[in-house]
Amino acid sequence: MIDRIEYHVEHAVDYVQTATQDTKKALKYQSKARRVSKNYAMESDLKNLTMCAISLGIVLKKLLREWLNYYKNNTLEVPE
User: What is the distance between the terminal CA atoms of the chain, rounded to a whole angstrom?
Assistant: First the structure.
């Protein structure tokens, strides 16, 4: 009976040590995964911001061109 208890205690110690090592590995993997996902999120945000800036620039260029053409063609002459 005592031999069985000792056997089970030894195996429990082994399981706890293995679980501790696996938990440490899991924490490392989780930490790396968070860093990678943050990098991808930042890259995605930067790409979206760049696309918005380019689109805004194109729209403003067209609006400015139309505005200048309108005022160039529709200027009022001031009588003297």
Answer: 121
CA distance 50 to 60: 15
* Six-digit token string for 18: 């293995």
Q: What pLDDT, on the 0 to 100 scale, is given for residue 77?
A: 60
Q: Which two tokens stand for residue 1?
A: 């009976």
27-45 pLDDT per residue, tens: 888 887 777 777 777 778 7
Q: How far is 61 from 74, CA to CA, in rounded Å?
A: 20
Summarize the confidence of residues 7-13 as an average pLDDT: 81
Q: How far apart are CA 6 and CA 9, in angstroms?
A: 5
CA angle 39/40/42 to nearest 5° reads 65
